[in-house]
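Box 3.1 A note on notation
Throughout this textbook, protein chains are presented in two layers. The first layer is the amino acid sequence; the second is a token string describing backbone geometry. Keep the layers aligned when reading.
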Amino acid sequence: MNHETGTRIYQTLQHLNSNVLQGKQDALRLAMVAMLSGGHLLIEDLPGLGKTTLALALAGSTGLTLGRVQCTSDLLPSDITGLSVFRREEGQFVFLPGPIFNQIVLVDEINRAMPRTQSALLEAMEERRVTVEGTTHPLPEPFLVIATQNPSEQTGTYPLPESQLDRFLLCTGIGYPSPELEKGIIAGGGIRERLEELPRLLDSQELLTARNEVSQVHLADKVLDYLHRFIVATRSHPSVLTGLSTRAAIGLAQAARAAAYLEGRDYVAPEDVRDLAVACGAHRLLLRPEHEARDRKELIRTILAEIALPLA
């Protein structure tokens, strides 16, 4: 395994944490875990906390192309995927790709789009391709969707269906920065101008190399057993109507490999699984109606507390 590539990725995260995204290190790390796992990230939080800045910084530091979709109630699927237009001078239809044809795609306020438009992302996120008018167009690699979601109590939002939530490998929030950090951000007037001067620290080929190396990180039987016990426990908990699927288990295993890789290890530790279980599992749980108000993240932590970590 080429530890040099992993070291460069780790140094990139440290640079962004120290110079651009103070207070957002957890969300940034999860974005990179999603990237290295071939998954996607959903950020649930209030507007104005730096979700867009995170995507811009990640794209700028890696040299990946960035597309942005601002979701509104009148957004059409073709506004995301693109459409074919007839060019009279050429006498034929020409496909004009939409913003989904970028390596990092920021889908802002995804739950403000109508369900039909939300579903336009499904094939792209899962199959890495888009089909328009019977023609299939491959998407670039690496490919990462970072979607943001407003709290459901805000007006004009449409809850994401379970099939759409399941397409996101990880889900997290950002939260308010500490008082001292927030005052520093306010005094500095934001960092958008600094993002334009952000040095390119990685490139797409290095990320693809790292993704291949992540798949080779060893998952020992005892760690696999621990992960599986957690998955099964979510299905039998009295508050849960539908627990985590096999797809979720595969995603958690791959995310744990990526987390271990970022730590410079070629094996998954049980703590990698435990530390990612909330981000990977909470948004996928379907609770019974009488328990719908229960905090899903706390429920995951409760389940984890009942499962002993395997000994080294």
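The first strand starts at residue 41 and ends at 44. The longest helix spans residues 3-19.
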